[in-house]
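We read letters as residues; the integers encode the fold. Take this protein.
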Amino acid sequence: MVNLETLIAAGESRTLEFKEKVPSSSLRYLKTIVAFANGNGGKMIFGVNDETRDIVGMDDANIFRTVDSISDAIYNNIEPSVAAEISVQTVAKKSLIVAEIFPGAHAPYYIKSLGMEHGCFVRTSASTRIADKETIRELMFDGSGKSFDLTPQSHKEVSEKQIMALCRSMRDSAKKNCATEAEEKIVKSVSKNILLSWQIIQERKGKIVPTKAFDLLTDNSLWCAKIQCAVFKGKTRDIFIDRKEYAGSVQSQIEEAYEFVLRNIRLGAQIKGLHRKDVYEIPVEAIRELIVNAVVHRNYSEASHIQVSIFDDRLEITSPGGLPRSVTVEKMMSGYSKIRNEGLAKAFFYMKLIEHWGTGMPRIMSLLAEAGLPQAEIIDMDGALRINIYRIGDNRIVGDKSAINSKTGDKSAIKSEIGDKSAINVSKKDPKTLILEYLQTHEQASSKEFCELLGLKASRTKDYLNELEDAGKIESIGANKNRRYKLAGR
């Protein structure tokens, strides 16, 4: 376990925050306590300067009275009750108060006096922000132990003909994805009762109704449930060469996006003896697995699309919603998996789009290693998850041995150009390009967020935002401190 002094030296992160003293208003630290409970937990350390990381310590004469006041503030002001452990610890001969907040099982957590809409907070990088409606909705599903895709659409009724059509479609997909003829012969049919047991269809007041999973597997009326594919010239999003948008059932989108990638990457040959074998520069199994994972694990309450982007140096797949609660990049790399969409997961497993639970990323890393490619770069973007696969011929050094890139607060981690706001100082991109790229994966953002993104002062950042707004590329919403920006027309 990392000791406290080492944690402090690393600086604030998504799971760590410093306070030089206890603020006079408890709201100033309760917001972060709530955010920790709504996320993966975290520690708040009182007695450390948040800018310099200097350990200043707390007043020993009143320290236990202060501990009690923090404990009371947490207990009396947060709903539901937060699991917290508050202790006094000594570092560099100075007393610190450490409030460790555990991930909550009954999210969403919020400050009572502000109500759920205005008092629910989440952690992004090393800052705390108010949760938007989509985030609150996902927290509610997570806290109730329910899956968003199994939400019944009680205003609709599904016919026997529609049910049988889905059963046939799924069986055809399962047979198509078999590796051998022998495996194909033993594929069993899906029945109405199986779909009921998977809750993809549900019985409500004597009638059979579809769920969102049924919709996604058939007509797919969710406007955000699409895959956008694009090929760009060079290594940035400045110039499109080709782009497609795929709608329809999610299983058909997977096939179309997969074929799009294969059409736009290099195909070579491998000669063994007298035999020649066509080989793509990126293992096709890894490409398929990444697209499947993006579809089955994305947050369907998030109003944005999956993006599959091909650059000269990489394949980039971005999935809306980021990592589920309690999942970290490190856990994902070790094979840990948390199912976000239970209905889709069961359907995909039957259709052989998913082979084994939790083996996705370790298997992808193994395939890349066998192909002589750098390990995948994984970027948790606070609201989206991006995975980069670097192509043959690119001499870029990805980073440390594990090549994991995440926004966990580790200052030694390699940073993405747009995935981590604090990393932008190493980028040579035009600030306006960075703003537009950031808004492609974030529905809205404030000028403060762009200051952090660009590493510039507020006045200079505002100039760039004004220029983009005057050019009709972005729009502003709200006024003064509440002003936020979005892509024009979105």
Remarks:
- The chain is about 35% helix and 20% strand.
- The two ends are 45 Å apart (CA to CA).
